[in-house]
Amino acid sequence: MEITFRPARHDETDRIAEIMFGEPPQEAVRVCESTERARRFGYMQVSTPELGLGWDRTVFALLDGEPVTVLQAGSQLGGFRVTPRLIWHTIRILGPLRTIRSLPYISAQRRVNAPAPEGSYHIAELHTHPDQRNRGLGRAALEYAEKQAHKECAPSMSLVTTVINPARHLYERQGFKVVETRTDVEYERMTGIPGRNLMVKELS
User: So what's the architecture of 3-202 in CATH?
Assistant: First the structure.
C-alpha cells in the first residue's frame, strides 16, 4: 500500500465532492432535512469557486494512485462567505421554506467555531472516502500537513471539529489538544450536536 500526495486539478471537482459529501455529515443532513439534499448542497459548495472550497485549495492523498482523501489546510485561509450565488443555489436545492429555516444555522455555526490561533496552520477539511477509512490515510494526511506547516514556519496547527466526532481520538494521537469547547442551544437544536472543539498542536 503506497500513500502519496499531490494538489487536486481543476477537473477533479466531482472527486473532491464525492469524498467530502458522498456520505454527508450529521449536521448537514439535519439542516438540509435530507441526505440527498445535503449531498447536493455539498457538491454545490465545492463547485462554487468564490466559496473557497474547491480544487484550488485541495491536496489529495492517493492510495496506490487513486485519490481517496481530501485535505484543505493552510496558514491564511479565507472564511466561508455568504454570497448572492450561494443564496440562489441554496434556494434551488432546499426550497424557499427550508432555506428560511436554515438561516439561524449560519449564526449558530459561527458561535461554535472558535477562531484559530494567530498564524496557525489551520486544517479546514480532512475527509477520507468511506470505503477507504481505517487504513492510516487520516494519520498520513495530518503528517503531511505538519510538514507543510513547518515549511511555512507556523507556530502551531489547528482544527475545529464537532464534539461527537470520533476522529478526535486520531487528532489526539497526533498531538492535538482541545483548547476550547463552544456549545450553543440553537446549534444543538438544528444539528443534534452540542457544539464544537478547537484543537491545537504546538510546533517546536
Answer: 3-Layer(aba) Sandwich (3.40)
For residue range 67-89, list pLDDT tens digits in order: 999 999 988 665 566 778 788 88
Cα Rg, the chain, nearest whole Å: 17
DSSP H helical segments within 153-203, as ranges?
A: 168-173, 185-191
Every domain of the chain and the residues it spans: 3-202
**Residues 59/4, Cβ–Cβ less than 8 Å:** no
Cα three-residue angle 67-139-66, rounded to 5 degrees: 10
Q: Using CA atoms, how far apart are residues 41 and 53, in angstroms rounded to an integer?
A: 12
According to DSSP, residue 114 is labeled: P
How far is the C-alpha of 110 from the C-alpha of 103, rounded, in Å?
Answer: 12
Predicted structure pTM score: 0.91
